[in-house]
UniProtKB/TrEMBL annotation, chain A:
<dbReference type="InterPro" id="IPR055063">
    <property type="entry name" value="Rib_mS39_PPR"/>
</dbReference>
<keyword id="KW-0496">Mitochondrion</keyword>
<dbReference type="GO" id="GO:0005739">
    <property type="term" value="C:mitochondrion"/>
</dbReference>
<dbReference type="GO" id="GO:0032543">
    <property type="term" value="P:mitochondrial translation"/>
</dbReference>
<dbReference type="Pfam" id="PF22330">
    <property type="entry name" value="Rib_mS39_PPR"/>
</dbReference>
<dbReference type="GO" id="GO:0043024">
    <property type="term" value="F:ribosomal small subunit binding"/>
</dbReference>
<dbReference type="InterPro" id="IPR011990">
    <property type="entry name" value="TPR-like_helical_dom_sf"/>
</dbReference>
Automatic annotation (TrEMBL), chain B:
<keyword id="KW-0809">Transit peptide</keyword>
<comment type="similarity">
    <text>Belongs to the universal ribosomal protein uS3 family.</text>
</comment>
<dbReference type="GO" id="GO:1990904">
    <property type="term" value="C:ribonucleoprotein complex"/>
</dbReference>
<dbReference type="Pfam" id="PF14955">
    <property type="entry name" value="MRP-S24"/>
</dbReference>
<protein>
    <submittedName>
        <fullName>Uncharacterized protein</fullName>
    </submittedName>
</protein>
<dbReference type="GO" id="GO:0005840">
    <property type="term" value="C:ribosome"/>
</dbReference>
<keyword id="KW-0687">Ribonucleoprotein</keyword>
TrEMBL record, chain C:
<dbReference type="Pfam" id="PF10213">
    <property type="entry name" value="MRP-S28"/>
</dbReference>
<dbReference type="GO" id="GO:0003735">
    <property type="term" value="F:structural constituent of ribosome"/>
</dbReference>
<protein>
    <recommendedName>
        <fullName>Small ribosomal subunit protein mS35 mitochondrial conserved domain-containing protein</fullName>
    </recommendedName>
</protein>
<dbReference type="InterPro" id="IPR019349">
    <property type="entry name" value="Ribosomal_mS35_mit"/>
</dbReference>
<feature type="domain" description="Small ribosomal subunit protein mS35 mitochondrial conserved">
    <location>
        <begin position="190"/>
        <end position="278"/>
    </location>
</feature>
<dbReference type="InterPro" id="IPR039848">
    <property type="entry name" value="Ribosomal_mS35_mt"/>
</dbReference>
<dbReference type="GO" id="GO:0005763">
    <property type="term" value="C:mitochondrial small ribosomal subunit"/>
</dbReference>
Length: 714, 167, 360
């Protein structure tokens, strides 16, 4: 923040007193080294047309789908790693040493090899500090085998490290060097490694409070049934001492709710004050309750306790709640039965009301302080009543009366004019709240709350951010689909779609089909949106599936006369490109490229021909149609046409009409012949008559036509 | 025996280097491309302008301040760095170059070295490979020159896009 | 190019072709004849296949193909490209979607960047052509000239204004007194310190010139007595500028700028105190030690006074009051470089003094 060193002073200069003229020079405003840069960066907002800054900003390299985003990013990251490995391996080839000051960032080094390093405590401590778990274990083993004295302190340090990381290297999410891969690594905590260095150290060290707590906490973090049993045993054995908070948190998280409550009571009796992790653990164990009503009750109890203790529930608490508000069995739509449907709806409504309260709470946090105060008082009132009705509070802490509480609350926090408070992450799972909440809101089709949630996420006070390429895109995907479903106006859909795809949301099948549905259902005409949806479909490789058909249908529904000139040009190029691509796909007839081939189906051909006619490429349309009549095209090695299926009748009819209008005999004949593949004589006869009327057919030709029709089956 | 040695000597004395001073070979051929009979030689804008147009019709390919009088701290070093970067890019993106990699622009902004220019989709375009190569090239050059190097190469569909004229 | 020409339009027996032939095309007879002629695969009387005599292979010979290529009549069979999926991933250029209403340019181009044709929505062209009327300069996409030049798209007037507004809160107002009367700087701020910082393109941030400190002091403001001032000037030597009455100290003898600055201040202090000290031997100063030749006490003055007396007795009308003026002129004449004007002025003054009229 800016500060002023005192008020503006009047300065006198001059080495002698007397006629000293006065200049008002104000003292400089204090600023940190980065203040100017921060101020400048605040003038720049996000560019909604650009891809993420990690990508090369060129039309060919901008990723359109989620998988493309992931692969491109990882590819770049791996390229960098390869270069770095080379540089670490051959440092003498990169020895350009003219940089002042020396830049170690450009001089990557191998990690210290535990077998080569000096076998002293100092090197062990260094390894522990840089969190090289496995290397430090190896070094420790080596020290022991060489009978070097390792002091208690160092052993304790090593024990802490090894217990926290389960004797294996730090997980992906904690890597410092390759920040990109952090997003994509696996997240799960494995099972406890028995017989590892951690167990060894636990045996050798004295059993103090600290070591036992560490062991219990570690056993619960990497839990499977055995390790939890062992933790509980350790806990029971160590009743004489005072176990630390983290151990309690671990035990609470690993046990059932009733056991957890007992543990919490014991914690209280030992006068250990809980922190947010404790409540997270409690919520986690409450989430294991199978009966729905009890689960909700437990949740409300825990939240009330948090508020009573003057603490803010962190977003991770809300995350655990929201994740478990709906029974996981009821989530899958197909597997729901009748009454299950009802209970699902009930649960959904309850979930939505919870979420709206939570959102108001969070928003109140980051908007005006006084408003927040009112809401909190309101909530405390409710919880107060709830608690009196339901059960006694878990923690027998002091129970304030409402106005007393609010008074103390004000005193503790200090009412000030400073109205804005930052939302900061408390645990590593806070950001997942956004995704889960958006998921629930999507199921409930509640757009208003989704909008509110999005605003909270994007506000400048929020510093909890989801990892960009994985979690955030799910968040925005759900939001976008929800918003598009609920909006009737195509303009708004266009706005949302253009600003979010593909920057935040990758193109996916459900999204595109949703957009097409909306376009069909709406009575407005919006060419830019349709064009963008089709272009996105092309770049995302959706051409060859169901969506390809949908594209053709949408394009044929476009009324060309309503488009402007540039739009018509765009339409023309788009159709040409699509048809060319489809034909190219059908022509992968060589052996090794066979798996890429997508043969043209007759309906596809007819629709494409129709589109070509619309843009005026008659010749090409007819050439395309001739493929339908060509036997070589649909059979054999060089086949490019799918043998099964029929041309679309409405497309052929329109083509026929068009040929007649242009008085093109041969074109009309072509259409007729194709129609004859599926239609019977009755339908064909009127067409032939019309042909004979409109086009200038001579006798011979008329005779051929009549003969042709007569040969058709009835 | 002696005669053999004498023969050897005459051979040696005949194989010395000579400078040709005839006027027909005296021409300056730098940056002048010969025209073909059926106009297949592609000329980019760079290639089409003769060298005496540098600074008039065509701009420089490297931009740095070490040629100015007061800034002449590391002038030869910069020239060497440029050459290293150009050779690396030319060799590393063999399929993707336009005009054999002669037209790569190097800019320096503060400590950062920026390589700009055009690459074409090769006959087998693979975008993941392109990203891998970009990551590798950037990191490699940065570690080599001890300053951040950024590639701002743009993509062009084929060499015809950069053709100014066909001779 | 979306060519469908590989789909051959050989005439086969579709309806359209029948109609075509009914009009009376030249191919009509041929097809019938071809059918009637029978196939080469007819068998001879023994039931064996007809053994063709091998004269020429059934494919096109190399020479033929080359001829066709050179004359441009070769049938190029387009093969589907293996990298089709990657090529399809090409998106339309971003500039198409940019709307000045909805987007701010400073968001799109916040910092210096080489020109990217797909991002800049302006239809620019750059390059010279022999005849501009016939062919327009080179287009935006693929134009290396646009890439080479430094562009200032990140410094539009709007962006500059935004930046200024953002930084304004760190600025304090300039002293208004100085704006009103700039000459106050001379009196209120007599010491000015100058030093330079150098930024380099490269990995080395050191520059040896950045330790040089120049300090310019206005000597009048030191308020020295006359003797002290004279001593000051003698001590300062070449560093003192007589016209502007400023002392310039340039130091680079220490390693760092701070040290040099302290040294400059130290020099100033020492000079000041030394100037104020009066040594015993300073009393031995004579007229010949003066820095400038003074008129008072010079032989010229005594001689001039005599001359005036003599002139009075000779009947001329000397102007005694102008002797001070003469004295100043004489001092400036003696102490500075002799020029033609000065000499003329001397003469004029002399004449005026002695009361001689201008003509003679």
């Amino acid at each position: 923040m800016i500060g002023r060193i005192g008020l503006s002073r009047v300065l006198t200069r001059g080495l002698s007193s007397g006629e000293a003229a006065k200049l008002t020079i104000q003292p400089a405003i204090e600023r940190s080294p980065t203040d100017l840069l921060n101020a400048l960066s605040e003038t720049v907002g996000p560019d909604t047309t650009a891809p993420h800054f990690a990508y090369i900003d060129d039309p060919i390299t901008i990723p359109s789908t989620q998988s493309a985003k992931k692969t491109y990013f990882m590819a770049k990251e791996f390229g960098k790693r390869a270069a770095r490995e080379l540089a670490t391996e051959w440092p003498t080839l990169f020895a350009f040493d003219r940089d002042q000051p020396r830049l170690p960032a450009f001089r990557p080094q191998h990690l210290a090899d535990p077998f080569q390093v000096d076998p002293t405590e100092k090197s062990l401590l260094k390894m522990i500090k840089s969190r090289e778990v496995q290397d430090s274990c190896v070094l420790y083993e080596r020290l022991r085998s060489e009978n070097v004295e390792v002091s208690e302190k160092v052993q304790l340090e090593l024990f802490r490290l090894v217990a926290y990381y389960n004797s294996s290297n730090i997980p992906f999410s904690e890597w410092q060097e390759w920040a990109g891969i952090r997003n994509f690594g696996e997240e799960s905590n494995g099972k406890w490694k028995t017989g590892g260095v951690a167990d060894l150290l636990f045996e050798t060290l004295q059993k103090t409070d600290e070591t036992v707590s560490i062991m219990i906490a570690a056993l619960c973090k990497f839990h499977d049934s055995q390790s939890v049993e062992r933790a509980k045993e350790l806990y029971k054995e160590h009743q004489t001492g005072k176990i630390h908070l983290e151990a309690f948190n671990g035990l609470i998280g690993a046990s059932s709710f009733n056991a957890a409550k007992k543990l919490a009571a014991e914690m209280n009796s030992l006068k250990i004050s809980p922190n947010i992790s404790t409540f997270n653990a409690l919520l986690f164990s409450a989430a294991k309750i199978s009966k729905y009503e009890e689960k909700i009750k437990a949740f409300s109890e825990i939240i009330a306790e948090i508020r009573e203790l003057d603490m803010e529930p962190a977003l991770s608490c809300y995350y655990i709640i929201v994740k478990n508000l709906i029974d996981s069995k009821l989530l899958d739509k197909e597997k729901r039965g009748e009454n299950e449907e009802q209970s699902y709806n009930k649960q959904l409504t309850l979930a939505v009301s919870w979420i709206s309260e939570i959102l108001n709470e969070i928003e109140g946090d980051i908007v005006f302080f006084k408003k927040r105060l009112k809401i909190r008082i309101f909530h405390i009132k409710i919880d107060f009543l709830q608690q009196n009705v339901i059960s006694e509070p878990i923690f027998r802490s002091k129970f304030f009366k409402m106005y007393d509480f609010s008074h103390r609350f004000c005193q503790n926090q200090g009412i000030s004019d400073e109205n804005y408070k930052n939302l900061a992450p408390v645990t590593s799972q806070c950001h997942l709240f956004f995704v889960e909440a958006m998921g629930v809101l999507y199921r409930a089709s509640n757009e208003k709350l989704a909008e509110q949630l999005r605003n909270i996420y994007e506000s400048s006070q929020n510093s909890i951010k989801m990892p960009v390429f994985t979690v955030e895109s799910t968040f925005y995907n759900r939001y976008l689909q929800l918003a598009i479903e609920q909006t009737p106006s195509l303009n708004r859909i266009q706005e949302l779609y253009f600003s979010m795809v593909p920057r935040l949301v990758g193109v996916n099948n459900s999204l595109t089909s949703l957009v097409f549905r909306k376009i069909s259902a709406s009575s407005e005409r919006n060419w830019p949106l349709l064009r963008r949806a089709i272009v996105d479909g092309i770049t995302a490789g959706q051409l060859n599936g169901v969506l390809g058909e949908e594209m053709r249908k949408q394009l044929s529904n476009v009324q060309l006369h309503t488009l402007g000139t540039s739009e018509r040009e765009q339409y023309t190029t788009l159709v040409q490109k699509l048809v060319a691509v489809w034909i190219e796909f059908s022509q992968f007839t060589e052996e090794r490229m066979r798996r890429l081939q997508r043969k043209l189906s007759p309906s596809q051909i007819s629709e494409c021909a129709l589109l070509l006619t619309r843009i005026g490429e008659q010749q090409k349309a007819y050439e395309l149609l001739e493929l339908l009549l060509d036997e070589n095209a649909s059979s054999g090695e060089e086949a490019t046409v799918y043998p099964k299926g029929h041309a679309r009748p409405w497309a052929m009819a329109e083509l026929f009409e068009d040929a007649l209008r242009k008085k093109d005999t041969y074109g009309a004949a072509l259409c007729l012949e194709i129609l004859s593949l599926t239609a019977n004589r009755a339908k064909l006869e009127p067409l032939v008559n019309r042909m004979v009327e409109k086009c200038n057919v001579n006798q011979e030709q008329a005779r051929i036509l009549q003969g042709f029709v007569r040969l058709r089956p009835q | 025996m002696l005669r053999y040695l004498q023969n050897v000597e005459t051979h040696i004395s005949h194989s010395y280097r000579q400078i040709s001073t005839t006027s027909t070979l005296h021409k300056n051929r730098a940056a002048k491309t010969k025209s073909t009979s059926n106009r297949t030689q592609l000329l980019t804008y760079e290639m089409a302008q003769k060298p005496h147009h540098i600074g008039v019709r065509k701009s420089w390919l490297t931009w740095h301040s070490q040629n100015l009088e007061e800034f002449r701290q590391t002038q030869p070093l910069v020239v060497a760095q440029d050459e290293v970067v150009r050779r690396f890019i030319r060799g590393f993106f063999p399929q993707n170059l336009v005009v054999s990699g002669n037209e790569i622009v190097i800019k320096r902004r503060g400590n950062v070295l920026i390589v700009a220019g055009f690459l074409q989709y090769s006959r087998r375009l693979d975008i993941r490979r392109i990203y891998w190569m970009f990551g590798f090239a950037e990191e490699f050059l940065s570690i080599l020159l001890k300053q951040p190097v950024k590639l701002e190469l743009a993509f062009v569909e084929s060499e015809e896009e950069v053709a100014y004229n066909y001779i | 190019m979306h060519r469908l020409s590989h789909i051959s339009t050989r005439s086969r027996s579709t309806l359209a072709d029948k109609l075509r032939s009914a009009v009376g095309g030249s191919d009509y007879g041929k097809s019938k004849q071809a059918l009637a002629a029978g196939s080469i695969a007819a068998k001879d009387e023994n039931g064996e296949d007809f053994r063709e005599l091998y004269v020429m292979p059934k494919r096109k010979l190399r020479g033929q193909i080359q001829l066709e290529q050179n004359t441009g009549r070769a049938e190029i069979k387009t093969r589907s490209r293996f990298d089709l999926m990657d090529r399809l991933a090409e998106r339309p250029p971003r500039s198409e979607e940019m709307d000045p209403e909805k987007h701010k340019w400073s968001d799109v181009w916040p910092a210096a960047r080489t020109f990217a044709a797909s991002v800049v929505p302006l239809p620019v062209r750059m390059g010279s052509r022999p005849n501009v009327e016939k062919r327009a300069p080179f287009k935006k996409e693929g134009n290396l000239e646009l890439v080479k030049i430094p562009n200032f798209l990140h410094l539009t007037p709007v962006a500059i204004k935004q930046h200024c507004d953002a930084i304004k809160k760190f600025c304090t107002p300039f002293p208004p007194e100085l704006i009103a009367t700039p000459s106050l700087a001379a009196t209120c701020l007599p010491i000015s310190v100058q030093y330079s910082t150098y930024i380099h393109q490269g990995t080395n941030i050191r520059d040896i010139r950045s330790r040089v400190v120049t300090m310019i002091v206005d000597v009048e403001s030191l308020k020295l007595t006359e003797n002290a001032q004279e001593k000051f000037i003698r001590l300062a030597g070449k560093r003192y500028n007589k016209e502007s009455k400023k002392l310039t100290i340039i130091t680079d003898r220490c390693h760092t700028r701070k040290q040099n600055l302290d040294y400059a201040h130290y020099l100033l202090t020492v000079l000041y105190h030394e100037a104020n000290k009066v040594e015993q031997w300073a009393e031995l100063k004579e007229r010949s030690d003066n820095l400038q030749v003074e008129f008072e006490g010079s032989e010229t003055k005594t001689k001039l006074v005599d001359l005036i007396e003599k002139a009075k007795t000779a009947g001329l009308k000397p102007d005694e009051s102008s002797i001070t003026e003469f004295g100043e002129m004489w001092k400036s004449y003696r102490n500075s470089e002799e020029t033609v004007d000065k000499t003329r002025e001397y003469g004029r003054q002399m004449k005026k003094l002695l009361g001689i009229s201008g003509n003679n």
